[in-house]
Amino acid sequence: MNVIFNRLRKRKFIQGPSVSSWVSNAVSSLTDIIQQYHLDGIDIDYEHFDYSDPNTFSECIGQLITQLKQNNVISFASIAPDDDGPIQSHYTALWKNYGNSIDYVNFQFYAYDSSTSVSQFMNYFNAQESRYSGGKVLASSMTEGSGGLSPANGFFDACRKLRDSGKLHGIFVWCADSSQSNDFQYEKQSQSVILGS
Questions:
Q1: Are 142 and 175 in contact (CB under 8 A)?
Q2: Residue 43: which residues within 8 A CB-CB, separation 6 or more?
Q3: Run of H or E residues at 191
Q4: Hey, which end of the chain has fewer CB within 10 Å, N or C?
Q5: What number of helices (H) and strands (E) belong to the chain?
Q6: Contact, 107 vs 128, CB < 8 A?
Q7: Where are the alpha helices (DSSP H) in 6-84?
Q8: In Å, what is the CA distance from 43 to each residue of 30, 57, 74, 99, 163?
Q9: Helices (H), 37-182
Q10: Is 105 helix (H, G, I), strand (E, B) or coil?
Q11: Residue range 37-57, pLDDT digits in tens
Q12: What is the CA radius of gyration of the chain?
């Protein structure tokens, strides 16, 4: 399957007059975008919640994903939390209430410090796998290596360890704009690791 994420990247979550009106508007506008560009799924990546509590966020996003799937608009959905407290509280509430509708946890491991070691990465991964129990947590890294465990410092070694223990559900590389300049080197390397080399 070719997967293209329609990322709701670093957007501020703004609550509408009601959950039902927010969901209705989101379903309508995303359906148009997804069908126009022939997308397979969405990646939810809200990081600012000025006026929304975790339960309202959970209901809005959970109902959105559920309706898009019920309408056969998307075949999968992922969420993209990081380890920031307010972000985790919102995504943890979403997972608790709608985890069965979420296919992947696209956790932003690259938000950790750039001095992250392989063993620290493994600990971080295990902690998030426990937090999102039953979910398919993806390993992630940045192409320019400015945060988290970089490819130069052992990211793919960590991915092989995850693969060998049956925990590697996929790899997310941020971002394609940077990757293009190096001929998508890390994406190609990710495919090789997933395929067993």
A1: yes
A2: 5, 6, 7, 8, 77, 78, 79, 80, 106
A3: helix 185-195
A4: N
A5: 7, 8
A6: yes
A7: 19-36, 54-70
A8: 12, 15, 11, 14, 23
A9: 54-70, 85-98, 118-131, 155-164, 176-180
A10: strand
A11: 999 999 999 988 877 899 999
A12: 17
* Parts of the chain with a pLDDT under 50: 1-10
Choose, from 47, 129, 144, 187, the residue flagged as catalytic. Answer: 47
Report how far residue 170's alpha carbon sits from residue 154's, in angstroms, rounded to the nearest whole number: 17
Residues in contact with 155: Cβ distance below 8 Å, sequence separation at least 6, in sequence order: 121, 139, 141, 148, 149
Q: Provide the residue type at 135 as one letter.
A: G
pLDDT of residue 13: 56
**Tokens 């890294």 sit at which residue?**
141
List the structure tokens of 139.
Answer: 């390993």
